[in-house]
Amino acid sequence: MKTIAILGTLDSKGAEFKFIKDTIEKAGVNTFVIHVGVWDAPFTPDVSNEEVAQAVGVSVEELQVKKDRGYAMEVMAKGAAEIVKKLYGQGKFSSIISLGGTGGTSIACGAMRALPIGVPKLMVSTVASGDTRAYVGVSDLTMMHSVVDISGINSISASILSNAAHAIVGMTVHETVKLENEKPLIGATMFGVTTPCVTKAREYLENEGYEVLVFHATGIGGQAMESLVEAGFIKGVLDITTTEWCDELVGGILAAGPRRLEAAGKCGVPQVVSTGALDMVNFGPYESVPEKFKHRNLYKHNPSITLMRTTVEECRELGRIIAGKLNMTNSPTTLVLPLKGVSLIDVEGQSFYGPEEDQALFDALRENIDREKVTVVALEKDINNEEVALFMAKELIALMGR
Q1: What is the C-alpha to C-alpha distance for residues 261 and 263, in angstroms, rounded to an integer?
Q2: Which of these, 189, 240, 256, 381, could form a disulfide with 260 (CB 3.0-4.6 Å)?
């Protein structure tokens, strides 16, 4: 029989966790309880808070004496991640569930993120309806909004916690679907303005026997792809849309962090990289654009997203940054420059058409790239031209064949 781990602060939410535990066991599935609170639990867990704290060399008594909630949460979060990872590796449980407010959510989600993709993970949280990026990261954990605070069992909380318990039971007892004849995985990055290119390349690669995972280059998308590269899932990278670096440099809302473009090179995974959507920085609704940018070339992509054209100076710096990242590579790497435009709206007659800006980008890339490590190919087409898409797909196959 499979087992579901229940992780949480039993000292503050004992009744709620006991309700989850009883509901799961009534459904015929075993439970394995991990206590991550500082004080005593109202019922006996399978893993005590002392064991969790000791996983990072701290005692619960020290946390109780110190009376520093922030420090205690930091210790228990680190300990929970270590314990959960170890116990899952020992086969103690098949899935995990938790519930909590901001503190409990932080501790539990950190532990869940330590587990492999595919392990069922469910977090019932008071903050699930807000910005959950800090909690979910690039993992596949599921968040369920608690609606009411997790404070006692009442007519509303009982319904929600029952649904959560039965949801994790369903995820646990039903086997994950496995595709037959699994194919080599390729990761590709896409934006709306590079969709024709990525779609054509994907179709070609799929016809050649590869499976293509397309990641929306929204910050978390680039991070997700690179986390799968580092985990060994992805065997080739078609990084067509490197736009997340625009937001990282200028201050947009879809940045992927300063390590973007490092994973494939570091892990020896062949990569074909291009300059897709480096003509734009992303902001929210028009009124959310910072005042200092209101004079810039802005484009209302949709009611929720406003795009801002990158300048000559920004494009020059983007070229230097991207060249620097690719120069770190230990893998076969090709950089493709689409000289007639880097997005659907960076072509003649469109809103972000900018020959001068693009030239600054391409010049900076050419001047700073290490050609002993990176092959540079310039094509007199825009990025969404079919010839560009097919060239990049075929080039990636060739690099993978090495």
Answers
A1: 6
A2: 256
pLDDT tens-digit profile of 175-232? 777 766 678 999 999 999 999 999 999 999 999 999 999 999 999 999 999 999 998 9
Is residue 179 included in any domain, yes or no?
no
337: CATH: 3.40.50.12030
271-273 vs 333-338, strand pairing mode: parallel
| Phi, then psi, of 331 in degrees rounded to 5 | -125, 160
In a domain, 178, yes or no: no
| The pLDDT of residue 245 is above 70 | yes
Q: List the domain range (segments joined by +) for residue 383.
A: 185-401
Half-sphere exposure of 215 (CA within 13 A, CB side): 29
Same domain, 152 and 250: no
Q: DSSP letter string over 126-148?
A: TTTTS--HHHHTTS--EEEE-SS
Tokens 């997700």 — which residue?
224
- Tell me phi and psi for residue 306, to 5 degrees: -115, 130
